[in-house]
Design the sequence.
């Protein structure tokens, strides 16, 4: 049921539909700029999944709430710029901290997390799922109202199997048998005491900086998908979906079905992508979805070996330039979605002491066990291979965390998925040109407004951080870590609490 | 005539300040540091960045005061974000007894020429409305401030002519005027200045081991947190008056748990740096309980601290000496190797003064400050010998 409710944005009342995120409600009302960067630029949602922190605002008096993770509620107040009060009066008490005891704590409720929770619970374990979003399903199964068909059986199975659900909570600190979580809405802290942990934090999009990428209205490819699924209408809009990987096609398909005019800009060459033909032939379960996808994209303008070189606009993206083999094309647009594949979200794993490989993936054995006893990891944070793989890995992790041995057929399936994931990766190698699009004046660290020119000649990550403040903002480097400039720096940064920046525990009660 | 050549080991704030002093006196300087660049390790990287004329004995106050003078008048060119910002320190007393101690502190500060004004409880709230309403009063030291030390260290080197830097190298041994690296390279100079903080005695070979029998140098871990931008609810550097008491309690038995005291430093990036804790030992991973104690203590003085989002937390260590004074001067038994370390949390404040003193002694100039309280040979000498040398010097 969708009701019409009232929210208050900077004092003005807006009538919006319920059951959508604040980000989505704001965008539907034509508000794409949510905050100001340190140098005063307007910024809005980029990732729409809680990684970039660009959409944060003060919600119901709570500072630093990621509006993409919170649903609108009747009477909600949203303030985009709120100066801090210099007072010691009216500080509300810190919320009561509760302890949840459970056998298995599952972090993330995407396919891997849901499967792990189902498997462990069906084997008699008590399970607690911790997830940042308002509802289950993770990024891939994000939805509004009823979940997508593929997700339904798992969500239903998890419901029947029972267990606690801490939906709308980030894991901010912890150790193998104890996690500290914080509400994304009001900062309330709780403890989760557990015997084992399954990390299923998935992946996030890789963003590569280019001139204009910080304009409101420029979002990730997966972000556009989530926003549309979350209720953002795109009918009649002109959209460019750019970057690399099969996700672009899925996003384009969705946008077209919702009535948008879409141009797809894929940086990989046709030759690179045709390398996928053989793995596809070997994977009959993927034939039908692939054909459907292809059919649905008839009539979509598509460029390969092409990429977005710049975006321009006043307060919102209006014009996009793309480099194609035929030369530079300039398109007038209403929105631009760019994503250069996925990178693992392994911060919680790193915080718990798990081994992380040089590409950022969590190292696990055949049973999805990390080298930290009692800590398992499943899904895209161990390797990008899609939702089918995540489900099977989740099952393995759930079974193992319940003290059982997974069957060899399941383990064999996991190995096959890995092969498919690697094939996709190989078919979309990033070309040098897209790694070097940012000019000296372009922002590379969005939180701190660090420009590419400032870090030219920088050798170590430590120097980039301490001297130039790269990665020292709210996202803690989640956005810029995927860029080539970051990869070229020596050394790594240790993960320390808070693993995710959470809203404060207390607030000042004004006379509202 | 060849230009004299000096070696500086350690490009933290103290080493970098020494480099500038020597280089602008016309010398050639070679810098050796194990990190990826200047100012990226140790206390320089982890410290809060406060420049304070602290409590303590008269000598310490003078060294701090000279350091502060030089930060104010002679800092290297830096962007507004990083350069010296005169926040002033506001020492806060929780109760009448502590307020009395502050009166004593004020007299001491005034005796060395430091401006310090007493503030009563009501004025305190007017000055800083975010402070708790029940505090007894405070002492305001207006010329104290904050500097961003990593950039300062880097700019000390950038502003200096005739400097060669070797980063990412490790020292095998340091002899008299000689530095041997593990990669086989050797450097020789008129003098070597070793400013590597906590490791200083251990990399000085035999001479270091001999000195270590007389003076020990040990790490004191501290925990710090920083809030998000847009949270600067204070104009002053706020420190609770019991800070020193809390600091020294760690040297007593049963101090493994460590002590905490409220110290909140506003940063020019519109953030607040929250500290601090003291616990013996090398900096380990962030201990959530210790961090919580620090923030709870800050909340006692600034109740709205818990309404501000915390962005990052970290640990670091101060290098403390057994007599609470830095080691500044030639290594006993060596003629051409000098030491500049052991500042215990005051390294950033004192760095320019310490570097000036080292240069003046090396170049045989008259010293701005009495150098003998800091001389590394102090444990070998009785007080009369020290006084004599001091008179000779004057």
Sequence:
């Amino acid at each position: 049921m969708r009701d019409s409710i009232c929210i208050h944005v900077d004092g003005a009342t807006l009538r919006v539909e319920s059951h959508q995120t604040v980000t989505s409600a704001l965008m539907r009302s034509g508000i794409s700029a949510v905050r100001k960067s340190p140098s005063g630029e307007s910024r809005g949602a980029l990732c729409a999944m809680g990684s970039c922190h660009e959409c944060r605002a003060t919600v119901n008096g709570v500072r630093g709430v990621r509006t993409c993770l919170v649903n609108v509620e009747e009477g909600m107040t949203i303030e985009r710029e709120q100066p801090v009060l210099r007072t010691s009066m009216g500080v509300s008490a810190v919320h009561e901290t509760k302890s949840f005891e459970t056998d298995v704590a599952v972090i993330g409720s995407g396919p891997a997390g849901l499967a792990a929770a189902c498997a462990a619970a069906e084997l008699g374990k008590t399970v607690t799922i911790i997830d940042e979003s308002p509802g289950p399903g993770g990024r891939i199964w994000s939805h509004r109202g009823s979940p997508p068909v593929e997700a339904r059986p798992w969500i239903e199975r998890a419901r029947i199997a029972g267990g606690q659900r801490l939906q709308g909570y980030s894991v901010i600190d912890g150790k193998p048998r104890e996690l500290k979580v914080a509400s994304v809405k009001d900062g309330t802290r709780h403890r989760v005491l557990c015997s084992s942990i399954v990390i299923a934090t998935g992946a996030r999009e890789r963003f590569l900086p280019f001139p204009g990428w910080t304009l409101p209205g420029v979002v990730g490819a997966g972000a556009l998908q989530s926003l549309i699924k979350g209720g953002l209408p795109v009918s009649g809009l002109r959209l460019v979906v750019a970057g690399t990987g099969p996700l672009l096609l899925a996003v384009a398909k969705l946008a077209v079905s919702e009535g948008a005019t879409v141009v797809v800009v894929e940086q990989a060459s046709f030759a690179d992508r045709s390398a996928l033909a053989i793995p596809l032939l070997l994977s009959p379960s993927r034939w039908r979805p692939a054909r459907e996808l292809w059919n649905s994209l008839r009539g979509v303008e598509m460029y390969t070996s092409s990429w977005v070189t710049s975006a321009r606009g006043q307060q919102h993206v209006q014009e996009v330039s793309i480099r194609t083999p035929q030369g530079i094309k300039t398109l007038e647009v209403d929105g631009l979605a760019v994503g250069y594949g996925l990178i693992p979200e392994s911060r919680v794993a790193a915080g718990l002491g798990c081994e992380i490989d040089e590409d950022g993936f969590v190292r696990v054995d055949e049973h999805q066990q990390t080298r930290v006893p009692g800590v398992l990891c499943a899904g895209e944070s161990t390797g990008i291979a899609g939702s089918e793989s995540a489900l099977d890995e989740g099952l393995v992790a759930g079974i193992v965390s319940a003290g059982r041995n997974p069957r060899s057929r399941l383990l064999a399936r996991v190995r096959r998925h890995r092969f498919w994931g690697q094939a996709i990766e190989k078919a979309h190698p990033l070309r040098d040109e897209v790694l070097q699009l940012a000019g000296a004046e372009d922002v590379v660290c969005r939180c701190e407004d660090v420009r590419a020119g400032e870090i030219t000649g920088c050798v170590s990550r430590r120097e980039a951080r301490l001297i130039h403040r790269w990665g020292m903002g709210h996202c803690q480097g989640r956005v810029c870590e995927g860029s080539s400039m970051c990869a070229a720096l020596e050394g790594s940064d240790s993960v320390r609490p808070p693993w995710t920046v959470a809203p404060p525990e207390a607030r000042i009660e004004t006379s509202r | 005539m060849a230009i004299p050549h000096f070696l500086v080991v350690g490009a933290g704030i103290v080493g970098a300040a020494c480099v500038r002093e020597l280089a602008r006196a016309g010398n050639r300087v070679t810098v050796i540091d194990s990190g990826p660049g200047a100012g990226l390790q140790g206390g320089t990287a982890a410290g809060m960045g406060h420049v304070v004329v602290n409590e303590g004995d008269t000598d310490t106050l003078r060294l701090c005061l000279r350091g502060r003078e030089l930060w104010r008048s002679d800092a290297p060119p830096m962007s507004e974000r990083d350069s010296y910002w005169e926040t002033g320190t506001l020492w806060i007393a929780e109760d009448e007894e502590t307020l009395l101690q502050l009166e004593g502190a004020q007299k001491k500060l005034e005796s060395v020429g430091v401006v310090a004004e007493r503030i009563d409880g009501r004025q305190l709230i007017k000055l800083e409305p975010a402070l708790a309403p029940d505090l007894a009063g405070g002492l305001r030291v207006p010329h104290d401030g904050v500097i961003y030390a990593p950039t300062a260290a880097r700019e000390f080197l950038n502003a200096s002519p005739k400097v060669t830097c070797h980063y990412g190298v490790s020292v095998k041994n340091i002899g008299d005027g000689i530095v041997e690296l593990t990669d086989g390279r050797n450097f020789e100079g008129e003098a070597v200045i070793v400013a590597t903080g906590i490791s200083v005695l251990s990399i000085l070979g035999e001479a270091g081991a001999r000195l270590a029998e007389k003076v020990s140098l040990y790490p004191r871990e501290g925990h710090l947190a920083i809030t998000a931008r847009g949270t600067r609810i204070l104009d002053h550097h706020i420190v609770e008056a019991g800070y020193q008491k809390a600091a020294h309690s760690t040297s007593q038995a049963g101090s493994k748990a460590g002590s905490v005291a409220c110290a909140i430093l506003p940063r020019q990036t519109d953030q607040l740096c929250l500290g601090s804790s003291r616990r013996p030992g090398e900096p380990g991973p962030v201990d959530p309980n210790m961090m919580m104690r620090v923030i709870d203590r800050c909340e006692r003085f600034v109740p709205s601290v818990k309404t501000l989002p915390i962005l990052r937390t970290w640990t670091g260590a101060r290098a403390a000496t057994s007599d609470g004074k830095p080691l500044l001067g030639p290594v006993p038994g060596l003629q051409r190797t000098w030491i500049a370390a052991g500042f215990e949390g005051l390294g950033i404040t004192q760095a320019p003064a310490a570097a000036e003193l080292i240069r003046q002694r090396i170049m045989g100039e008259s010293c701005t400050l009495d150098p003998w309280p800091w001389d590394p040979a102090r444990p070998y000498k009785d007080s009369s010998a020290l006084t004599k040398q001091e008179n000779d010097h004057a």
Remarks:
- Confidence is low (pLDDT under 50) at residues 383-394 of chain B.
- Residues 254 and 393 of chain B are 43 Å apart (CA to CA).
- The first strand of chain B starts at residue 5 and ends at 9.
